[in-house]
Write a structure and sequence with these properties.
Blueprint: E1 6-9, H1 34-43, E2 47-53, H2 56-59, H3 64-80, E3 87-91, H4 95-98, H5 109-118, E4 126-129, H6 132-141, E5 144-147, H7 155-164, H8 171-181, H9 190-194
Parallel strand pairs: 1-2, 1-4, 2-3, 4-5
Helix pairs in contact: 1-8
């Protein structure tokens, strides 16, 4: 039995509009075409995991319960569009307040936890998000990272991703490149990161 493939997707700015410290489920608005992109992954047998930094919890801007309400709303909206999410994991920390942790992206603890839970190979995974911290775990772990820029993506991060050949204009394009790559091309590795 082969290990399932897994896609790690950022939430705010990648799947939904980034409302900054979103605590109201009514504010969960899907970005255009994300359900189609996620549906393509599911059709290919890829497991879907949302990994998100939620420092607003540590900062006191939102509560865990408020985050959970937005998490559940996202799951509901995606399921209604046949783009079910398998797992949603979040980091509630903010280093100046709660100290350092391994779960805050670009840390890899949440990715490793999901891979263990789903029996997936991290080196065959898709890592997509609108910030460099979303794709860096894929570089560190040897997967397939793609930066999908939003209005909040810093120009230097766009340039860095373009230079590395991992910049995609949309999540749909990132998914297409990932699925097309399959086993034909090697994943991006830490060796490439140093070049």
């Amino acid at each position: 039995m082969t290990e399932p493939r897994i896609a790690f997707l950022d939430r705010d700015g990648t799947l939904i509009e980034d409302r900054h410290y979103l605590g109201d489920p009514a504010g969960v608005v899907l970005l255009p075409s994300v359900t189609h992109a996620v549906g393509r992954l599911r059709d290919a047998g890829v497991r879907i995991v949302v990994v998100t930094n939620q420092s607003g919890i540590a900062r006191g801007f939102i509560t865990e319960a408020a985050y959970e309400a937005t998490r559940d709303r996202l799951a509901s909206l995606m399921a209604q569009a046949d783009a079910q999410i398998d797992l949603q994991l979040h980091c509630p920390h903010y280093p100046p307040i709660s100290g350092t942790c391994r779960c805050r992206k670009p840390g890899t603890e949440l990715h490793e936890r999901a891979a263990r839970a789903l029996g997936a190979d991290l080196a065959k995974a898709l890592y997509a998000g609108d910030r460099w911290r979303d794709v860096e775990p894929g570089i560190v772990l040897g997967g397939h990272p793609f930066l999908v820029p939003s209005t909040d993506t810093p120009a230097d991060e766009r340039a860095r991703a373009a230079q590395a050949g991992i910049l995609c204009d949309s999540l749909g394009l990132a998914v297409a490149r990932y699925l097309d790559a399959g086993q034909r091309t090697p994943a991006l590795t830490t060796q490439r990161r140093r070049s």
